[in-house]
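Exam revision sheet. Question 4 asks you to relate a sequence to its structure. Input first:
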Amino acid sequence: MKRALLVACAACLVLVATPAIAGTAYVPLAVDKTVDGRTFSTELWVTNAGQQRRTLSSLFLEEGTDGSVRDGLEETAQGLPAETTQLLTGVTPDGKAGLLEVSGAPQIKLTGQIRVTDDTGATIATTSMPVVDSDDSIAAGETLSLQGLQRTDAGSFTDIGVVNLEESDIIECVVTLFRVDGTQVGPTLVGNLPPRSLVYLDDAFNLPNIGNLGGARAEVTCDGIFYPYGLVWFQGLQEAQFVAPSASLSSEFLRPGERPPVPTVDLPGGFFNPVVGASLFEVDLPVDKNTPYQRVVVEFDMFLNRWQNPLFHGLVGLKRTNGGPQYFGIFLRGSNSRTIIDRGDGTDVSIDGPWQERTNYSVRLEYNAANGASLNVQVSIGGQVIYNINPAMTFTDLRVAPNQDLRLFMGLSGSFDGGAFLPPWGWNFRNLTVQAFEE
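Answer key, C-alpha cells:
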C-alpha cells in the first residue's frame, strides 16, 4: 500500500511467520489499515468441503515481530459446518499489517483477497491474495520473474513481497528491477529474511528520475525456499492486480501427437583428444529413472591417427553404473583393421572393418534392446556409408535404477594386459550426440 500503509524501506519492513505444521499455510499480507480515507483489509473465502464440521485456526503475526515467539499471541478458531462456504472478515487487528498463519484439516479450502473501501464503506477495488503452502515453495537458488509491473504519473505503482518459507534458517534474497528493454532500474536489493517471514517492498519502483514505467519486471532469487509476488495498484488505488511468478516453458505437457523429449547429450566440436594420463572420456545420459528405453543412438566424428600397436585400441562403450551390465564395448585391431565388439557377457564378436590410419570417419551406433538386443555399427566417409554391421547383443533392459546412470565411455584409462589393450592416443573425436528413445 502507498506510503504510510507500509514503510517504504526494503530493509525495515519484515513480517515474520512461525514454523508450520501439517495443514498450515500463510496469507503473506494480512492488513487492516486506513490511509487517506481508504481502508485496506484482508478477507478469506473458506470452504469446508468435508462431511463433518471442521475448525480453522488462525494466528496474526504483526510486522516487525519474530513469529517463532508465541508468548502473548492469541489464536482464533472459526467453526465451519460441513459443506459450507464463509467469507471471513476482520482477520487482522485494527490498524495492523502482518502475516496470517492458518491451519486446519485438508478438507478446508481457502482463497485470500484484499478489499479497498472508501470512507462510506463502498468497495473501490479488490485483488486476490495467495494462500502460500508447501506446494507454492520455490527451491533455493532458482530465479523467478514478476512481470507486467507498473509505475506511472497517473498513479499506478507496484509493491513486491518475498516470503521466506524455511522452517528455521535465515535466508538471503536478492531483488533486481528491470525496464521493458532489459536495462536495470536502481540498485540491486539484498536483504536477510528470518524464518517464515515476509519482506514487503512498498512502491518498489519509487526511484529518482524513474518516469513512466510500464511492462517492468522484477527478478527474485534466494538461497533458501521462498515465494515472491507483486501487487500492482492502478490509477490511485482504483484497481489492483496480484502478480504471481511467471511460468516457464519447462512444462511436461505435450501438444497433441507430440512425443516426449528425448534425453540428449550434444557436444559440438572437439570433445576428446586422448593423451597419456587423460585417455578416458565418460558422460552420463540424462535419462529418466526406471524408464523402459528401447534404443540408444550414438554419433560422433573421429580422426584415426596412428595405431599404437598391432592389437586392440579402446574406442567406445555403453554401460549401466553401480552393478549394471556393460551393454557393449568396441575395440579396433591395428594388425588387420577388424572391429571387436565385447557383448558384456564374456563373449565377443570379431568382424572385418574399414579402419585405416590417417583417416576421418563418421560413426553411428544404435543399440536396440527391443526384440532381442542388437548393435548396428555404421561408418561413413564424406557422407557416404562404407561399413554397416548389425551383430546380436545380450542385454535387453536399458532401464536405470535411481542410484544408477547410463554412461557412455570412450578410450581407456590406461594400458592393460601387458600393452595388448591401449587407449587411442593421438586420435581426435568431435561432434558427439547421444540420445535414448522409448520406442
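Marking note for examiners. The chain is about 0% helix and 50% strand.
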